[in-house]
Sequence to fold (136 residues):
Amino acid sequence: MVQDDAAAARSGLLGQLVRFAIVGGFSAIVDLSVYSLGLHLGLSTYVARALSFVAGTTTAYALNRRWAFQVEGGARRAGGFALLYGTTFFLILGVNALALAVLPESSWRITLAWAISQGLGTAWNFVMLRLVVFRN
Fold:
């Protein structure tokens, strides 16, 4: 029985992780698209990154709550999500700025800085969403 519970927990975690990855991939496309559009329109990298983060985050919240973690909404969950993503916002902006400062000049520098900041933010968010915000 204990072994069955452990297998079910692993299976549930794996399913959650796969759904989170799909949501994350889609949200990253939204994020990068808004970032690229902002840069194309002449916004600074920081303003474009901030706007793209908000667009990607809004997408991620809606899809993660309903599909990846399959939990009902509520003010507490929304507040926890906002607090987590507010923290993540400063984390990704700092990582993006650091990456821009240390990466050599190239045609891929801005996109690579975005990808590095996005990757770190994504890992942080999965752990905190699972353990804190969308915990059943």
Observations:
- The helical segments are 2-40, 45-68, 75-102, 109-133.
- Residues 2-133 form one domain.
- The radius of gyration is 16 Å.
